[in-house]
Design a protein that fits this description.
The strands form 4 sheets. A 7-stranded mixed β-sheet has the order 13-12-11-10-9-8-15. Strands 5-4-3-2-1-14 form a 6-stranded mixed β-sheet. The protein has a 5-stranded parallel β-sheet with strand order 18-17-16-19-20. Helices cover 40% and strands 17% of the residues. The radius of gyration is 31 Å and the shape is elongated. It is of the alpha/beta class. It starts with a strand and ends with a helix. The chain has 20 helices and 20 strands. The relative contact order is 0.09. Helix 1 (20-36) packs parallel to helix 2 and helix 17 crosses helix 18. A hairpin with a 2-residue loop joins strand 4 and strand 5.
Amino acid sequence: MTDGFLKVAAVTPKIKVADTVYNAGEITNLILEADRAGAKVIVLPELCITGYTCSDLFLQDALLNEAKEALFRIAKDTEDTDALVFVGLPIEKEQKLYNAAAVLKSGEILAFIPKENIPSYGEFYEARHFAPGKGLADDGIPLGTDILFACDNMEGLVVGCEICEDVWSVDPPSTRHALAGANVIVNLSASNDLVGKDTYRKELVKATSARLLSAYVYASAGDGESTQDVVYSGHNIIAENGTVLSESVPFTTGILYADLDIQKLRMERRRMTTFVPKKKHPYLTVSFHYEKAEKTELSRTFNRTPFVPADENTKTKRCEQILSIQANGLKKRLAHTNAKTAVIGISGGLDSTLALLVTVRAFDMLGLERSAIKAVTMPCFGTTDRTYENACKLAETCGAELIEVDIKQAVLQHFADIQQDVDNHDVTYENSQARERTQVLMDIANKQGGLVIGTGDMSELALGWATYNGDHMSMYGVNAGVPKTLVRHLVQYYADTCNQKEMTSVLLDVIDTPVSPELLPPKDDGKISQKTEDLVGPYELHDFFLYYMLRCSYPPSKVYRIAVQTFKGEYDTDVILKWLKTFYRRFFAQQFKRSCIPDGPKVGSVALSPRGDLRMPSDACARIWLDELERI
């Protein structure tokens, strides 16, 4: 339960129709098993104490009385468990029969939630037996549709319940439950299987969780139900805000688990200003308490490269979409400014390579000659033969005009002007080169009526790994929304799809080149001496930190916890903590650079533009975040 994680379970017992003693035993055993596994919310199918398919037997007092006795036995036999349990049975109230969920906690029956939408079409004849549940009755054990269950020792956890057909209706109860505060919706279901229905069911649950910014735990009837006319497959689904966390294999029984992130759901609702909580009807909120507030052992995994899809087909589609967004953004800017040329500083590195490829695509879309792209290489003290040659080959294969401006003498003159010792390889030594390069690009653009295309990526902006008014500045930054881990895949995608042997060859060598600003002299063997990730940390870690800090609003300790789990065996805990401290320190200290970045297209759910996604003071204090890391 720490860090907002909550383990839940969707359970399908093997039952016997109308055998409440047998069913109660199976249900109890599965509740106990799920509780031992750490599940804190356990959901069983609709009418599972009797079986959903009892038909006219539901009108028999014998079955109704035995169902009630079975519920009492289940409650007593699970009184030492710590989970909030939802189990289905028929309940009679004021001479009406309701298809209801009994809500149990530590042996106590907290409430009954009746089904609201009673089907009477096709193979469903529930209206023959059951009345629709509406409103709220609070004499003795509450029975009603508008009841929520709020945990008093897990911040923000509020559970609402609906039953089967409710979620298929035009105006499902879960909508008002969510608006009344529920962020976990459970559904006790008996959904029969038909060709194609499993896909629809999954999409329905997935979309409902997205629309409500909630988790959705769906438990369906399966083995043991009557197969007189239809078959039930026990198709269980657990979703969270549009993502299916786990799904059972059809025609199986047992327990499906998933770890919900309640903290993240609360953040999403805070962020989504169109989600406006309101209670259209009076709601009863029933409080409950978890006795064992232990740390949830996570079965949930986290994508180590959250900006890069794991599925190859999805990744291919995503790369094409991102390149199109970048190129269309640049196309509009070029057309609007009537630019005659585009000027790009090319280093032979990944970022400038991607910027050049995007510019080529934008020029092709506009029907402009590629020769109007001015690819400027500016060798200086740290330039290696490998990157220089790749820059030249890249310009040539793209059809851009290559312009070479050796800036050594200009930088040496500048050193003399500001009395900088050429042997002092400090930050002034490095940044003077970066600013000289930017000046050259800006002046060439002025001379040739063009725009300077920025090459810096989002990961560099997050860390402030850019020279202020050097590579930090341009007239349109095409890579501003692309993190470093994604840049490599975009270039790889271009290499795989360009159908140009020479282009593919040079792009693959660029991909294989270590990331470096090349501002310090090379080693004696001519190889790169200044590797960015040795200085600032691995970009795969920083992109991981960036995503979960900004997109999910995780606190530092939670980012650390999931990073340790995700990168286990690759980085030890001390290394992760070291670079996480570096990330937070730099992220806060370098906001002043992000506050004045050029325009550039947003391509994903995380962006750093001061005009939209990140409204952050340039002088905000990082103490709260760094203090939390010091306590680890």
